[in-house]
Amino acid sequence: MAGDILSQSEIDALLSAISTGEMDADELKKEETSKKVKVYDFKRALRFSKDQIRSLTRIHDNFARLLTTHFSAQLRTYIQIAVGSVDQLPYEEFIRSIPKMTVLNVFEVQPLEGRVLMEVNPNIAYAMMDRVMGGLGSSVNKIENLTEIETKIISNIFEKALENYAEAWDSLIEIEPMMSEFEVNPQFLQMVSPNETVVVISLNIQVGETSGMINLCIPHVVLEPIIPKLSGHYWMQSDRKEPKPNEIEALKKQIHLADLLISAQLGSSDLSIQDFLQLQIGDVIQLDSTIDQPLVVKIGDKPKFTGQPGKLNKKIAVQIIDHLSRGDEDGE
């Protein structure tokens, strides 16, 4: 690796230390052959590679942009949403990190198994509800005293936003998010086992003058069937989507309706400019082809067929005889 290459001055210093006895060559060899131990915490298992985390970040960057547009239209106020961080940690650690009373939207993502949790800072949820009800977007944190009407309004706000989540994942997999549960106390919510690895995507959101966080918690079991698709190699392959059958048929119809210029070339002749300027009606130009040679039929400016002249229904016509050699036309 490039990071292990020594400069010439470092090599000279190392050789000098060995020759003067400051460094023992045998000890140096033992140090090189000794096993390098890396501390690993089994309680905090890292089950996603950096490449997969980057793919999840890319998807949720798109989701943040879609959500910004959606909430801006719904709430008619200044909205700014961006991905703050993407981490993997045990589910228990995530639950301990969020407030004791908060807004928890749990939704399914068919056809994937399991559920995804969207935790919304209460200040943000109240500011959104205030805008929906015609207010200025002020925030009051009284999450433990939500009325049935307030619960329904807040739940509807984020349920409508799930369409954007499906669109954000559309380049990778078609999902159908569906709200399944609304809760305010994380202690009453047990989605997976405490030690299950989850990916937590934190979105920084600002609603008018109020700012806060939206955390998306995706368990490993949900992403497990599509983990191979989260690699950078898959993204490079899937940038170019295969056309659907109906798209191919529509393309064929459009091609069949396209106009092409077809011309038959009787022959050619070389003239000087002086002879060309002196041409008169009735003059005869001698061509370089004989009467028994086939004509060259061009599509646009490309020679494609050979043909013979004739008449059809008292009109001049050309009958196609054969294809021209295609040795140099593979890419056309």
Textual characterization of the structure:
- This protein has 332 residues and is α+β, with helices and mostly antiparallel strands.
- It has two domains: 196 residues, 3-Layer(aba) Sandwich (Chemotaxis protein chec); 71 residues, SpoA-like (Surface presentation of antigens (SPOA), Roll).
- The protein is 34% helix and 25% strand.
- Strands 1-5-6-3-2-4 form a six-stranded antiparallel β-sheet.
- A hairpin with a 2-residue loop joins strand 5 and strand 6.
- The radius of gyration is 36 Å and the shape is elongated.
- The C terminus is likely disordered.
- Keywords: Bacterial flagellum, Cell membrane, Cell projection, Chemotaxis, Cilium, Flagellar rotation, Flagellum, Membrane.
- It holds the Pfam family FliM.
- One of its GO terms (biological process) is bacterial-type flagellum-dependent swarming motility.
- GO terms for molecular function: cytoskeletal motor activity.
N-to-C SSE string, H for helix and E for strand? HHHEHEEHHHEEEHHHEHEEE
CATH homologous superfamily heading of the largest domain: CheC-like
Number of helices: 11
The name of the CATH topology of the largest domain is Chemotaxis protein chec
Main location: other
Pfam families: FliM, FliMN_C
InterPro entries: CheC-like_sf (IPR028976), Flag_FliM (IPR001689), FliN-like_C (IPR001543), SpoA-like_sf (IPR036429)
Protein name: Flagellar motor switch protein FliM
